[in-house]
Design goal:
heterodimer, A: 164 residues, alpha/beta, Hypothetical Protein Ychn, Chain: A, B: 104 residues, mainly alpha, two-stranded antiparallel ribbon, 2 strands, 46% helix, DsrE2-like (chain A), DsrE/DsrF/DrsH-like family protein (chain A), DsrEFH-like (chain A), sulfur carrier activity (chain B)
Chain lengths: 164, 104
């Protein structure tokens, strides 16, 4: 084992829920703050994190999430069937966004802008773009380019690849 | 905690070179730490350092990127170009403050 510092990371965001998108953004931003070269690659429903019409309306999935609790994390989990009640997802998202704001974690649109300004590359997956019938106009201006998997691997030369 | 001599003053630092105690810190010392990081301090750097120092004095923590943007009025791009390779970490080190403890 060598203790060679990490120099470059590629982070793949594949899920479109709030808890699916934020970890990748926090890791990419954190990498840049450590002086690590970083690229973000959005695929499947993760792509919603860079679609200008939807990126600021990303929600927590409350259905089928047995870890759901009120914020202090020590309480009883929310019975899973309650996650299906109308408005639950919006409510949980509102609660979590408030907590994140206290920690100065920006909303997704602003976070993507910050990460892009930090010099992190932002890419979308070609197969998903075709599957969802998307065009360049659907993306936020920070999205650099649509890449095939092959181009993604080329761009990731020398990187650690992290799939979220 | 290793001791280190900066401008003839012996200070104790943590393993990453951050000052353990801010009291011996002064502007000349900042310039020397900055040189070690490969940075020559200009007025633009001092605008960032002054804000971080004032905010630390008030809040007890090194501000994160968003706070530097929104409250400090310093754009992300500018921070990365002034302090290449880890802006907040480097700025905190030069300002004689502890290593930033926030994830964002």
């Amino acid at each position: 084992m060598s203790d060679e510092p990490i120099k470059k990371v590629s982070i793949i965001v594949s899920k479109g829920s709030l808890d699916g998108i934020y970890p990748g953004l926090i890791m990419a931003n954190g990498a840049r703050m450590e002086g690590i070269e970083a690229n973000l690659f959005f695929t499947f429903f993760g792509l919603y994190g860079v679609l200008k019409k939807y990126m600021n309306d990303i929600k927590i999935a409350t259905v089928g999430n047995p870890a759901m609790r009120v914020p202090d994390a020590k309480g009883m989990p929310l019975p899973t069937w309650m996650g299906a009640l109308p408005g639950m997802s919006a409510f949980a998202t509102h609660m979590m966004s408030k907590e994140m704001d206290k920690l100065d974690i920006p909303p997704i649109g602003e976070f993507i802008e910050m990460i892009s300004d930090a010099g992190c590359g932002i890419y979308a997956c070609r197969a998903t773009v075709d599957m969802f019938h998307l065009t360049e106009d659907d993306f936020c201006p920070q999205m650099d380019r649509v890449l095939t998997v092959g181009e993604f691997y080329e761009l990731s030369a020398g990187s650690q690849i992290i799939f979220t | 905690m290793p001791d280190k001599t900066i401008n003839g003053v012996t200070v104790s630092t943590d393993d990453d070179g951050f000052l353990q105690d801010h009291s011996p810190w002064n502007k000349d010392m900042a310039a020397t730490i900055a040189e070690e990081e490969g940075i020559t301090l200009t007025d633009a750097h001092w605008k960032v350092l002054d804000y971080i120092l004032a905010d630390f004095a008030e809040k007890g923590a090194v501000p994160g990127m968003r706070r530097l943007n929104k409250v400090g009025g310093i754009p992300t791009k500018e921070l990365y170009s002034l302090f290449p390779g880890g802006p907040i970490k480097k700025a905190a080190k030069i300002a004689g403050l502890p290593k930033p403890a926030s994830c964002v």
